Amino acid sequence: MTSADPVRTTVHLVRHGEVHNPDRVLYGRLPGYGLSDLGREMARLAAAHLAERDVVEVVSSPLERAQQTARPIAEAHELPVGTDERLTEAENAFEGRNVAGGKGLLREPRMFKYFLNPTKPSWGEPYVDLARRMRAAIDDARARSRGHESVLVSHQAPIWICRCALEGRRLWHDPRRRECTLASVTSLTYADDHLESIDYAEPAASLLAQAVPGAGA
């Protein structure tokens, strides 16, 4: 590398593995929702995918499922797991409710007000705020790991909304079309301060068909 060459830094955004959620509620930020046995295997596959990378830090959302996903990744690199509140799940007014297929919500007229503006969205944390906090966490991570790689373990909505913002897409979207499966890895590579590429991988693809359908991220 010469003095004119850019310094490349990669930040990997990892979604947690499957959660034990037999009642299929939207668990959001509720405590007590950890990984299922399948989710722990997904976390191991994510760790194997990143094992040969030049990872110098692993930072996680404070929520249990993210911390459990981060642990084998950190162990593979002999690193501690840091915690960053900015990586946490999005706020959601439907937290704790059974929303699979929307049926549970349609039985509660008092919840209808939260459907008024899906572009914001009216049911929870504004997309622009979600993107802003994730980008701030990413910027701090790449400053700490300049010339190397960081792993940030988060949740589907924060990762996907941040990716949309980075790619210049509209933030309002159909959640069913998110490219952010369980234990997936979205890798952001920067040349100095310029975002050079966004890559996506699904280390746990072989296990996805076994995952129990349900609400939550």
UniProtKB/TrEMBL annotation:
SUPFAM superfamilies: Phosphoglycerate mutase-like. PANTHER family: BROAD-SPECIFICITY PHOSPHATASE YOR283W-RELATED (PTHR48100), PHOSPHOGLYCERATE MUTASE (PTHR48100:SF51). This is Putative phosphoglycerate mutase. GO terms for molecular function: phosphatase activity. Transmembrane segments: none annotated. It comes from the Bacteria. GO terms for cellular component: cytoplasm. SMART domains: PGAM (SM00855). InterPro entries: His_Pase_superF_clade-1, His_PPase_superfam, PGM_Phosphatase. CDD domains: HP_PGM_like. It holds the Pfam family His_Phos_1.
